Amino acid sequence: MNSLPSPSGRITGVQWLVCIIAAIGFAFDTYELLMLPLVARPALGALLHVDMYSDAGSKEILQWTARIMWTSAVCGGVFGLLGGYLTDLLGRRRVLTWSILLYAVSSTASAFSTSAWMFLAFRCTTFIGVCVEFVAAVAWLSELFPDPHRREAVLGYTQAFASVGGLLVAGAYKICVTIAGTLPAWLTLPGENNAWRYALISGLIPALPLIAIRPFLPESPVWRQKKLAGTLQRPRFGELFQPLFRRTTIVTTLLFACGFGAAFGAIQLVPQIVPGLLADTGKLAGLKKKLDAVPTDNAELARSIKKEIKPLADAQQQAVANVQLYQEVGGLAGRIAMAWLALRIVSRQRLLRLFQIPGLILIPLVFGVAAAGHLGDASLIVLKWGMFAAGFFTIAQFSFWGNYLPRMYPTHLRGTGESFSANVGGRMVGTAASFLTASLAFGPMGHLSIAYAAAAVGLLVYAVGLAGSFWLPEPATEALPE
């Protein structure tokens, strides 16, 4: 089937298939990553055999959640870097296909975990697949559309589906919670409160259309022609730091780290802040301490206290989910705005700063004022809209790199260059901002100390990112380098 542009200039059927698979891949990248915050509490409660309603159990679950997030991010960064190299060596289609299958199968396998360590291992392989998929998909799409205007539009709007994934996973989890107790015996998975297992199995969804469509998917015509002609050079990491590419590599890695730093050092910590803004938080904390003090042989009293805890805990989670929804919708709107503006603003520096400058002002205000509770009863409402705006200006920057990086590296180095910036800068360095926030938080780790620390870290990474944008090289031409 012909993968080149049609004589009429319309997108061909095969190109539509590639766009569909890439959009599904981007959506389920986010779907898989945001699955952990939703399922961590019930999953780790079951796997660690601890009471997730007690203070002691909550602390152990929180420690394991942080361990899983950091370990999987590091694994994803290391193997994502290797995946970018393999994308240049073996081809875009092959690596993208296997990366989607890897994270889909890993997510499903994690649903059958019997221990926390097994769960951690499958979360690592899930993260690896996600990190590799992004690089392969961006390289593939950019080379499939030689027309610069259409390439920018395709890259921008397909990447917007990454934010759709956040909305999908929230809906899928709600469905799983609803149906988990109503399924026939032959479909019932082991354990109580096992909706988390069904949610993880839903991660298999992107593999199904991929298996059906794969025979019709073309390889990147640019990469394939060079491969067949014997002119495709072997990618080398050292080449990224030669004079021609050194500035691009260093600056984009730094700016990627700043973008992920804002996400992990501030935005992703909102679920830990929101409960502190609720009126029933003190009552819930008191009940948890009362539960911890119940003798092990008094099961009746423990059940009675848990009945009081459950509606309060559910209300907390609902409040967290509502704020998360505002953030995800803001991120989707930001990605769409970035895709639209990328077609109309020539200067990449100017385009990036349109999102950096408002974010630099906004993030400290949202976390230092609304998240800290200084607006009284209005704090939670303002925080919702603040997180919409924070998602808009921060998440949009992730789409910027998908449009920018393919124009800065030649064919044989495109995947390698993209993966270095995304995985070393974003996954390995940027995600460490969560530990920076934790170290800056003073006193007890209450919502106030976390909010102030997140405001400081957000201000820092946005300021560094804005300064770094002045050294960001502009692409030489609209065409992709050969």
Characterise this structure.
The protein has helices at 13-33, 35-48, 55-90, 92-110, 116-144, 148-159, 161-179, 195-201, 207-213, 221-229, 246-265, 270-273, 281-292, 299-342, 348-370, 379-404, 414-429, 433-440, 447-469. With 482 residues, the chain is mainly alpha-helical. It folds into two domains: 11-232, Growth Hormone, Chain: A (Up-down Bundle); 240-482, Up-down Bundle (Growth Hormone, Chain: A), CATH 1.20.1250.20. Helix 3 runs antiparallel to helix 17, helix 7 (161-179) runs antiparallel to helix 8 (195-201) and helix 14 crosses helix 16. The longest helix is centred in the middle third of the chain and has 44 residues, at 299-342.
Structure summary:
The protein is mostly helical and 482 residues long.
